[in-house]
Amino acid sequence: MLTTPPIVDIQNLKVTFTGGAKPISAINGVDLSLERGETLAILGESGSGKSVTLRAMLRLNPEKRTRIEGTIQVAGEDVLALKPKELQAFRGRTVSMIFQEPALALDPVYTLGEQIAETIVKHEGGSKDQAMKRALDLFERVRIPSPERRLGNYPHEMSGGMRQRAMIALALACNPKVLLADEPTTALDATVQIQILLLIRELQREFGIAVMFVTHDIGVAVEVADRVAVMYGGRIVEMGPIRDIIRSPRHPYTIGLMKSRAHDALAKGTRLEVIPGSPPDLANLPPGCAFAPRCKLALPSCSEGQPDPVAVGDGHEARCFRTDQTIAA
Ligand SMILES: Nc1ncnc2c1ncn2[C@@H]1O[C@H](COP(=O)(O)OP(=O)(O)OP(=O)(O)O)[C@@H](O)[C@H]1O
């Protein structure tokens, strides 16, 4: 039987920032693959390496002060080997990114129509008129009301939710195969958040794009993702289908994350159960499991070596020495 290769294939990715007094090991051996049209959420607390992973896929980390090891293949292209010109063509055309704050992607001094049309002409050639027609089509697809008039707007003339939609239109302008989204909805109010997420989901189905998005919010992941990768200390500690991760998380860190969310839903004023302890120091990572110092199940041996991924279900794995102790009751 013929199998299609994954659209994203990341092997043993390591990212170290070397600009400071001590090297910061932000990503420490990430393996990840994504099928065409699939949506993966990356969860984890602040500093776990979610954004650095996404940025590595577009080579957006500051290269002079960063050491990158491993391989990143997207749509058959070897991302870490791309030359500057190839990288320019790759960005936007093969992989595109939307940010938490549209101001990072949108230029304040050009109208939205001009920006989208210019991106299309730059990547694909053709006339400005044709590109404007495509921009109009994109505005319709991302459901911006009065799209023709809105194309003539500057970013500051739109509401936050509309700016997000315009940014998504810009990101889709060159038909990318993979869309990366770094907490695309945190800056928006709840109703607009849900609308934007449903829009991403719909576009993803319509265009067959693979989506990788970072979030702090498990509820958001449930709404949109097929699979989830949970990161801790620059490693994926658990990965699997969203339903399995919600119903039967098997890494003690994921179990802790799920508990803190359950408490989050309680009445205001209830003390949240946070996972005691603090995240690992990335300038001084321990040799063993980075979660061991905070883990209720840890044995002394957990601090000695790195746990390999253990299969705990269909397409579900956890990097933990104690998965025999974490089976849901
Ligand atoms: N350019 C950089 N130079 C040095 N350290 C960096 C740089 N970029 C990120 N880091 C460090 O790498 C680690 C991982 O950062 P990253 O932004 O991926 O975390 P994150 O999981 O996305 O967190 P958050 O949810 O807060 O965005 C952090 O400790 C961060 O301080």
UniProtKB/TrEMBL annotation:
Q: Which UniProt keywords apply?
A: ATP-binding, Cell membrane, Membrane, Nucleotide-binding, Transport
Using the UniProt record, give the first listed, main subcellular location.
Answer: membrane
> What GO annotations for molecular function exist for this entry?
ATP binding; ATP hydrolysis activity
Can you supply one Gene Ontology CC term for this chain's record?
plasma membrane
Q: Which residues cross the membrane?
A: none
Q: Where is the ABC transporter domain?
A: 10-258
GO term, biological process aspect, one: peptide transport
How does the UniProt record describe the way this protein sits in the membrane? Peripheral membrane protein
Source species, domain of life: Bacteria
Task: From the Swiss-Prot or TrEMBL record, state where the protein is found.
Answer: Cell inner membrane
Q: What family does the database annotate?
A: Belongs to the ABC transporter superfamily.
Please report the name of this protein according to its UniProt entry: ABC transporter ATP-binding protein
Q: Which organism is it from?
A: Phreatobacter aquaticus
